Amino acid sequence: MIQSVMPTVVRPTIRLTDRVAAMQESPTLAVLNRATALIAQGVDVVDFGPGEPDFATPHAVAEAGKLAIDRGFTKYTNASGIKPLREAIAARYNRRYATRIGFEHVVTGCGGKQELFNLALALVHAGDEVIIPAPYWVSFPDQVAFAGGTPVFAKTRTEDQFRPTLAQIEAVATERTRGVILNSPCNPTGAVIRESELAKIVEWCASRDAFLIFDETYELFVYDGNEHASAMRWFEQYPETVVIVNSMSKTFAMTGWRLGYAIAHPEIISALGKIQSHSTSNPSTIAQQAALEALNGVNEDVQRMYDAYRERRAWLVPALNSLPGICCADPDGAFYVFPEVRAFFGKAGITDSQSFASYLLDEARVAVVPGGAFGADDFVRISYATSMERLREGTARMKAALEKL
Length: 405
Ligand SMILES: Cc1ncc(COP(=O)(O)O)c(C=O)c1O
What we know:
By secondary structure, this protein is an alpha/beta fold. It has 13 helices and twelve strands.
């Protein structure tokens, strides 16, 4: 009898690369996921988590998007974006900073996040160290690590409202330092870097042949007489050093349109365009047309949003500081506050920012983002991109829950 010989069945395996395996999936977002699930079940959760404006995209901008579809702007464009949009971005910067850049200094992409990611791929060599002030926006370290570099953190101080200084950066620099990533106004702390300090950091980077990526996604949201200092001021002096990243997302309430940009030396811009040409290609053609409209002027809408954030912040900071055990620095900008909650550690099973956030969700039905996600475990992030009514409600609930501790 002939025995049929069945080939040994080898189960196919999924073999993720080391670089993906090393990427952090923020464990602290578990609290927000739980909040989302509760909201879906109909539970009344006050959500202080959102990192995006609670306003609709300005009407004229949305209309421009619709018109783009009607007019057939629905095909591929140049991978770096259409020339009129890149020119409009260059013109906006030229007006503000008296520079003379052209479209060749600008690349547009699917959000500022894409440009930051591509910049890491384009500029970070294996083994390079990149200095990032902490607390930091969650994606910076992972982007650097994904590109083969090592993120190195320069700790900022609560006493200085978390504003980064050259001394803090110098303290962690080594001969492998290849660049610095600054984010001002900062997510999550709201810190706005002082112009004098920024000047020193730009000079320092240039003198060491290190790049300076300057993320000014929240540039317009600066309060209380603070002024936004942009590294763009030094762009023409140090075009090989300074890279600007910005976005339509927050300024124009366009998060879902996915339109951001970078300004840099044309050689860097070409590299970013090349990466895009092999990955996403152009950012949405429709979003590009909408962005053009936004840049051509929806100033009143932007002012209205700014006024609302300012009013909420002015109410929220003292309201939080009046809660027992909460200590909240006055943030210079963005739409977040970053209170310290360490006073509650050791109570009711709270040991860190994540268990504090869990306690608030369980006891108060208030969702906040644990500071551990931003490299600062004694803090939580509260977004005031929500209505005054919800801010009042959430703060009252927090008060009741914290008084039990
Ligand atoms: C500091 C910072 N940079 C960049 C981004 C990216 O924004 P987008 O990709 O929507 O332009 C964000 C979004 O939250 C941010 O907070």
